[in-house]
Amino acid sequence: xxxxxxxxxxxxxxxxxxxxxIAQSPRAERVFVAPGNAGTAVDAENVDLSATDTxxxxxxxxxxxxxxxxxxxxxxxxxxxxDALQAAGLRAFGPSKAAAELEGSKVFCxxxxxxxxxxxxxxxxxxxxESAQHYLTEREDTPVVVKxxxxxxxxxxxxxxxxxxxxxxxxxxxxxxxxxDAGNQLVxxxxxxxxxxxxxxITDGRTILTLPAAQDHKPxxxxxxxxxxxxxxxxCPTPLVTDKLLASVExxxxxxxxxxxxxxxxxxxxxxxxxxxxxxxxxxxxxYNVRFGDPECQPLLMRLKTDLLEVLDAAxxxxxxxxxxxxxxxxPAVCVVMASEGYPGSYEKGHPIRGLEEAAALPDxxxxxxGTSLIDGQVVNVGGRVLGVTAMGESVxxxxxxxxxxxxxxxxxxxxCRKDISDKALGIDS
Length: 430
Description:
Its EC number is 6.3.4.13. By secondary structure, this protein is of the alpha+beta class.
């Protein structure tokens, strides 16, 4: 068996989950995380390099005999980190810069969906505030979604109930530049009605391995109220997506997207993540991400029994057809995100976190770190989303109970979380 060193790029809950799972592989020699957090320092080895330090990451991978680099977040993918690693003769899991535009540009994504005949919301693209405002004023006053074109850390999407809210969203994105250059173009699309679900797939451009569907919770507060966040919790699998529905998402959404990317000479290899709205007319794509979702990654990897390193290694070599069916723990998993006071707005950092050992001692629980750091031997909060407390149980209800029991163990000044993660499943599955 050929052992290898693995480098994971990023510092969130997704990267902690990747490091934890990859470190379990008998083929993993050393697992590095750049820059990592207080949790990855326990389950792997942290490297003091920013996720966007392309030259530094390439140099480190060469000098430390890294056999595979796994890029976690979207920003380095969109900036071309995978291309830089490959140009240096190194192996990397994740899409190229050209393929990552599927997430890096909402305009590119919407146009590709239209060309691939993948079901999605009707939309219009605008390059300035004036033309967008004119369009909104002239059309019927119906609910819309206003999106900044570029990357905005999951916050550049504003769901509007009426024209007044939409005009305000346009002003925030295109005039006040709340999301910076991400708002140089914007998309206005019809607001779809239904439940949201996330379907992630690992693909090498030829074979697609579709993972069990998960459900994220984007709004900050209980009952899906408040501003959008990077995600306040997730659970997997979701009973909202039946086996039949998952098969149709694969054939009508994922397959045509991969084919269209190939036709566009941007072959897609990596994680293709479809954010879906389950409408009365069937599933429609809200957006694509080009990496594991955070927090969907945490409950997904908690349940995965197949060696993840083998899967990612095969994807890089276009041998996914050799992997076969992935093996999953039949029990559902629920991940509850604990956040800093004030998130998704401004928040205080540096508060010591207590009770982590107590939570970790509970059965079938794993606390994935996101916005944490180790300062003077103490774990402190340094981010908005701080921890992803994840648990498995015989049912969604039992997994939820176990996750919140672990949450109760953990304390820091201003810590908070949603109390209703996975409740949407409980009307269907208890």
